[in-house]
Amino acid sequence: MSMMRNGALIINAARGKLLDEGALLQVIEERNVFAALDVFSSEPLAQFSPLLHAKNIITTPHIAAATVESYQQTGTHVAQSIIDYFAGREIKNGL
């Protein structure tokens, strides 16, 4: 992160531990760097986490995958699993 240029934006919606949050806070203090974070190394994020109060950081509560399409797809898969169960068919992704 020390090589990030002024005005750079880093986005993490994958895995919290991919990003060194301490280094991110440091580079934000030193430069005009921005971040958008949906995941964190420890979740839920503590109420007084410096990530919540740092300038140039936008946080969301692990909702990047929560889209209308994902909810529709989940509903379709659940309905199909119920139909398959009562029809005596194998349930995909069943446990």
UniProtKB/TrEMBL annotation:
Residues 2-64 form the D-isomer specific 2-hydroxyacid dehydrogenase NAD-binding domain. One of its GO terms (molecular function) is NAD binding. Keywords: NAD, Oxidoreductase. GO terms for cellular component: cytosol. The keyword Oxidoreductase applies. Coiled coil: none annotated. InterPro entries: D-iso_2-hydroxyacid_DH_PdxB (IPR050418), D-isomer_DH_CS (IPR029753), D-isomer_DH_NAD-bd (IPR006140), NAD(P)-bd_dom_sf (IPR036291). It comes from the Bacteria. Belongs to the D-isomer specific 2-hydroxyacid dehydrogenase family. This is D-isomer specific 2-hydroxyacid dehydrogenase, NAD binding domain protein.
